[in-house]
Amino acid sequence: MAHYWLKLYTDILDDPKMGTLPDNLWRRTVELFLIAKRYNDGGTLPPVDEMAWTLRTSPEALTTELHDLAECTTDNGKPGIVHLNDDGAWYVTNFAKRQAKTPAAERMRRLRERERRNQTGDSHERNGNEPDTPETRDCYAPVTPRNTDQIRSEQIRSEDKEGAQAPALEPPKQEPEPKPKPKRARKKPNPPPPAVARFRKATNRYPNKALYKGIAEVVGDDPDNLDRWERTCRAYVAMGWNPQNVKGMLQHYAENRIPGDDRKGGARASPVVEPAGFAGLRELMGEEAMNGT
């Protein structure tokens, strides 16, 4: 099923969060709504790199705009227009709630309200002094069950005045409202390993999921090792090198080298013993390179 339209509510015009946004963030908000609808995952947004390509901007600029929209809150402390979840993905706040289907009872109430407004508007447009009689209403008002019942009631009252006996009217049958379908509980994704989370923090992106286990085995969960791993990744990106070259970052980490430190003329730190699991990770990367992945 193509997801080619979404609900955009008119109360945005009176929302202070939206009204105080600069023009570029106002437009970016609507574009994020459209991307969330196309992605069709309850308001989940795709990775920043993918969105940046779609919006023809850089990942760094888009990340800054996402954080600006996340900080756009009101005095009651509710979340901003978007928010970053614990799994590292960006979400449009309350997107699933606002895009949910309108209940059948609410749709029927709105339909009757429109019909009532249309009938009242037609009567005033004909002549402000002309009484709304069955004869004039037949010429202008649409014939609906509600309108027909009203005309019949007026005919009965006229017959009662002339002494005629009014026939008994049966009350209209009301169809039972359909029961709403129970909502499925959305499964929460498992958080990534600490070493992968540190990689994400340093490079603003996630590595290939096939490498999660290998990265976790090499770096481990020790806080000091995690700090050194994050510094290695951050320095690697700062050197202008490929931020997705996980193998190169792990090589520097295993040799206890921070990228750029050896350019200062100092002696290189003595390499440490290769951590357990690094040989298996290197073999896995070699297989992926041969397969072209």
What does this structure look like?
The protein is an all-alpha fold and 293 residues long. The chain has three domains: 10-99, Arc Repressor Mutant, subunit A (Orthogonal Bundle); 104-161; 194-291, no CATH class. It is 51% helix and 2% strand. The chain has 13 helices and two strands. It has a two-stranded antiparallel ribbon with strand order 1-2. Strand 1 and strand 2 form a beta hairpin. Helix 9 (194-203) runs parallel beside helix 11 (223-238) and helix 11 crosses helix 12.
Question: What are the SSEs and their pairings?
Answer:
Layout: H1 16-19, H2 23-39, H3 48-54, H4 59-70, E1 82-84, E2 90-92, H5 95-99, H6 104-126, H7 134-140, H8 145-161, H9 194-203, H10 212-219, H11 223-238, H12 246-254, H13 278-291
Helix pairs in contact: 9-11, 11-12
- Percent of residues in helices comes to 40-55%
The average pLDDT is 76
Category from helices, strands and their pairing? mainly alpha
* Morphology: elongated
The SSE order reads HHHHEEHHHHHHHHH
How many helices? The count is 13
According to DSSP, the number of beta strands is: 2
**Number of structural domains:** 3
Strand line-up of the largest beta sheet: 1-2
Q: Unreliable runs, pLDDT <50, ≥5 residues?
A: 123-141, 264-272
Strand content: under 5%
Largest sheet: 2 strands, antiparallel
* Separation, N- and C-terminal Cα atoms: 30 Å
- Rg measurement, Å: 32 Å
